[in-house]
Amino acid sequence: MADRVVAASDHAGLQLRAGAVEAARAKGFEVEDLGPHAADSVDYPDYAAAVAEAVAGGRARLGLLVCGTGIGMSMAANKVPGVRAAVCRSEFEARMARAHNDANVLCLGERVTGLGLGAAIVEAFLATPFEGGRHARRVDKLNALDRR
Ligand code: RB5
């Protein structure tokens, strides 16, 4: 079965989300695209919650969220227990977010990151496994913060 990814954006992230979805599908991932599918203004916490809950609930292994900056999406997604969302502006950050932080949601900003770089960041995020080892202890501590 294909590895499953869930994606969404707000109105400020439509184009970059389309590119992210295409990049993930081209790498063999099964992508559930939660929209929105029109340019009307929407509220990013609603879409962040939908993706975060799909990842936390196990419907998808990884999530992709795009807004204007990536910041609002990451703030909202990180409120859902079990989600480790990271805003990434570079392929290096995307690799580190997966390898060291076991990030399970990638947040991008369409007003910050161009389409070509955005696709490369998505590919780096999806291709990088969590390293485990000493990082597992730290991620466990991160997850414990959900229960405070
Ligand atoms: C929408 O104008 C913008 O505020 C939103 O996309 C995002 O950048 C918030 O963090």
- In percent, how helical is the residue content? 40-55%
Low-confidence stretches: none
Which homologous superfamily in CATH is the superfamily?
Sugar-phosphate isomerase, RpiB/LacA/LacB
Q: Rg to the nearest angstrom?
A: 14 Å
Distance between the termini: 36 Å
Q: Which CATH-level-2 architecture? A: 3-Layer(aba) Sandwich
What is the topology?
Blueprint: E1 4-9, H1 14-26, E2 30-33, H2 44-56, E3 62-67, H3 71-77, E4 85-87, H4 91-99, E5 105-109, H5 115-127, H6 134-144
Helix pairs in contact: 1-5, 2-3, 4-5
The protein binds D-ribose.
Features:
5-stranded parallel β-sheet, Ribose 5-phosphate Isomerase B, Chain: A, alpha/beta, 5 strands, 6 helices, 45% helix, 148 residues, binds D-ribose, single chain, globular
Brief description of this entry?
The protein contains six helices and five strands. It is of the alpha/beta class and 148 residues long.
